[in-house]
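Hi V.,

Quick status before I head out on leave. The structure for the redesign project is tokenized and pasted below; the design run finished overnight.
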């Protein structure tokens, strides 16, 4: 029995990987095995960093809220506790934006919970 080869599918698979490797440096963009490894590693990093981005932004927001709170004599944890007690439901993203771009509004919120 003769050997059956589906050349179309295997070529399409290679083309897809090489297309994803476009813009890489050196052999990473045009040598199949090197490009395949580089693209797979890149996809692993992309998956991991989609999760890490959320952590990094939350940490940034906490730092900005803390800096704004300290200007009014409170620490971050005390401010967040008082906000919860007062029933003010603003998330960290909004609070950080207010602390940075609208200090008057942030001061009004802090004065409301003091």
């Amino acid at each position: 029995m003769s050997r059956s080869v589906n050349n179309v599918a295997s070529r399409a698979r290679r083309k897809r990987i090489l297309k994803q490797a476009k813009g890489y440096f050196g052999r990473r963009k045009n040598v199949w095995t090197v490009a395949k490894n580089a693209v797979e590693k890149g996809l692993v990093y992309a998956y991991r960093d989609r999760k890490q981005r959320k952590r990094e932004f939350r940490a940034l927001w906490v730092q900005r809220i803390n800096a704004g709170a300290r200007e009014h004599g409170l620490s971050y944890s005390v401010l967040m506790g008082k906000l919860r007690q007062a029933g003010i439901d603003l998330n960290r993203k909004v609070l950080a934006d207010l602390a940075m771009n609208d200090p008057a509004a942030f001061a009004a919120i802090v004065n409301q919970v003091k």
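Above is the designed sequence. The mean pLDDT is 95.

G. will cover questions while I'm gone.

Best,
W.
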